[in-house]
Amino acid sequence: MWDPELAELERRRELAERMGGAERVARQHATGRLTIRERLAALTDSWQEIGALAGRATDGGFTPSNVIIGRARVDGRRIVVAGDDFTVRGGAADAAIHEKQILAERMAGELRVPLVRLIDGTGGGGSVKQLEDHGRTYVPYNPGWDQVVANLGRVPVIALALGPVAGLGAARLVTSHVSIMVKELSQVFIAGPAVVEAGMGESVTKEELGGWRAVSAAGTVDLVAGSEAEAFELARKVLAYLPQSAWQPPPVLADPADDAGRAAPELREIVPRDRRRPYDMRRVLDLVFDTGSVLELGRRFAPSIITALARLDGRPVAVLASDPRVYGGGMTAAGADKTARFVDLAETFHLPVVHLVDQPGFVIGTAAERAGTIRRGARALAAVYQSTVPWASVLVRRVFGVAGAAHRPHSRYSLRVAWPSGDWGSLPIEGGLEVAFKRMLAEAGEEAAALKAEIAERLEAVRSPFRTAEAFLVEDIIDPAGTRPVLTEWVHDAYATLDLGPNPAARP
Questions:
Q1: Smallest Cα–Cα separation from 263: which of 494, 416, 491, 487?
Q2: CATH number corresponding to 265-426+464-496
Q3: Which Pfam families does the UniProt entry name for this protein (predicted)?
């Protein structure tokens, strides 16, 4: 009875599968990029499209909408996916794209499942050519942006830049918990080279303007992949650390391969006695957390601060640390921003925080003052002190000043242990001595050097971390080799106390 309509339905579905047509698909492949349907097949175990019939019918033909959405499974977990189809109008907006994007956002948020955005194009209002078609302009607005923002507090949002991404597409990319781009294949910018040249008189290539080197160093993206396949694998890895939603705990591996009680004797030798010498903090992470589980985010941005996802006895945790090879591990203005955002991620998805502390304090100097380091540093301090997730701090070496005070939320219980290499205070003795004893040294004249050495020797005598432990100003000093067993014991208690649900302390 309904054979004509069913035949038309099948015809339209087949036309939608062709996307922008053979010529434009070939053009997409010629740039080294997959089509959106190939991407969805590569990312997911399976997926079910929603809204395939949205688009514009023409005489004897059909142009599909240039965004594809659907429900999917990734490693068995339910997610929502939304992807731009660059073969149809370069991924720019058409009559149906807004409603489909909004539906994907609302669906993920209300079904309480992660959202993955595959972004390739502007995703915005399109070209000025359309003004003649419409016969008018419009006042800019972002339809459904309330859903985009709300999802930051509800469900994990992973966004991938898989081609040139500009304008609203770039905004959709960064309004996520973790963003990923592909070397040489994708670029991210507010406006492309032609617009920049016309508006600013600056002639640059796409790669110079928004290539992976510039964008990852600016902190615009969190991860950089060498290929689309690697980008999809990174998306799957990130999802494996995060819960389905803020109402659920992070996923725990049922049978972790690593030994929870594994000691690491190498840690006893890793911190040099010479306090001016750096060491490899990432090696510390590898030895402490489950083998192969450390996934660093934002490595090229604010590199003195390390942020990573990892596991302890199969349980996901958020890891903060400093890299003493960059500014001695000191906190920069950008490092403060990086810290605050990462703590908010942990807070949103109930990830216990492990902080491996070697913090000499804020980076100082005129450049630091021009960057507003103290204001942005205070914001990081607020994020730490407002956090409610379980927290463990391991004082590896230095803990100095206001930045050092951000090593844990002091107003509530947290696990805190120190290594014998611990060194802390308001200022390092090396920098604070001359300030504190300035007048005395000035009056000493030719004896100033000898007096300075004598004062330094006296201060060194009280510098021992055991003096601090005697006063119970640090709870425990441990053998570095036993750090992992201490933390794996703690993480079981931490997971038993998680307070699930959207967290008002977490900021989008």
A1: 487
A2: 3.90.226.10
A3: Carboxyl_trans
Q: Which residue has the tokens 């590896």?
A: 396
Report residue 467 as tokens: 């003096």
**Partners of residue 50 on adjacent β-strands:** 69
| CA 176/CA 152 separation, integer angstroms | 7
Helices (H), ranges, 242-348 = 281-288, 333-348
Say what the pLDDT of residue 15 is: 81
Residues 6+ apart with CB under 8 A from 204: 193, 196, 197
- Per-residue burial over 337-375, b if 16 or more Cβ lie within 10 Å, else e, is bbbbbbbbbbbbbbbbbbbbbbbbbbbeeeebeebebbe
Q: List pLDDT tens digits, range 259-297.
A: 999 999 999 999 999 888 999 999 999 999 999 999 999
**pLDDT per residue as tens digits for the range 429-474:** 565 555 666 677 666 677 677 766 666 666 666 678 888 888 888 8
Which of 204, 208, 198, 154 has the alpha carbon at shortest distance from 176? 154
The per-residue pLDDT of the chain, averaged, comes to: 89
For the chain, what's the residue count? 508
The CATH architecture to which 3-241 belongs is: Alpha-Beta Complex (3.90)
CA distances in angstroms from 108 to 72, 84, 344, 363, 501, listed in the order given = 11, 17, 20, 41, 16
Residues 397-417 as b or e (16 or more Cβ within 10 Å = b): bbbbbebbbbbbbeeeebbbb
Any residues with CB less than 8 A from the CB of 100 and at least 6 apart, and which? 50, 51, 54, 65, 67, 68, 69, 82
Q: Euclidean distance between the first and final Cα of the chain, in Å? A: 53
Q: Tens digit of pLDDT for each residue in 22-64?
A: 888 889 999 999 999 999 999 999 999 998 888 887 776 777 8
pLDDT confidence of 20, banded at 50, 70, 90?
confident
Give residue-wise pLDDT tens across range 493-506: 999 999 999 876 55
Sorted by where each begins, the domain ranges of the chain are 3-241, 265-426+464-496
Average pLDDT over residues 349-359: 97
**CB neighbours of residue 140 within 10 Å:** 8
* 8 A C-beta contact, residue 88 and residue 54: no
Rounded to two decimals, the pTM is: 0.90
